[in-house]
Sequence to fold (99 residues):
Amino acid sequence: ALPVGPVAGTPLYINPSVAGFFNKHYRFLLDALEGDAAVAHVAMVASGAGLSGVRTALATLSREGGKALHLFYGLRDVRHLPYRELLARWVAAGQVGLT
Fold:
């Protein structure tokens, strides 16, 4: 099972719940990140339909700037990658890393 909460000795916080992007304070991810200059890197993990909510969060964070963004996306066949053109533009522009 994935640990939930802060990882001891690191600046990492893990929340395995994708729905709603809630953190330990029960606030939406974007609200939690707003004004927190200590957060320099945001990594998101999604698969399947979970990319829809992640796409919206990445678009907002990308527009705001100031944070390194990386998306880890799981799928069976890259030919079925949703938002392919959008993701390709973000990667080409250096706005989002994609694995």
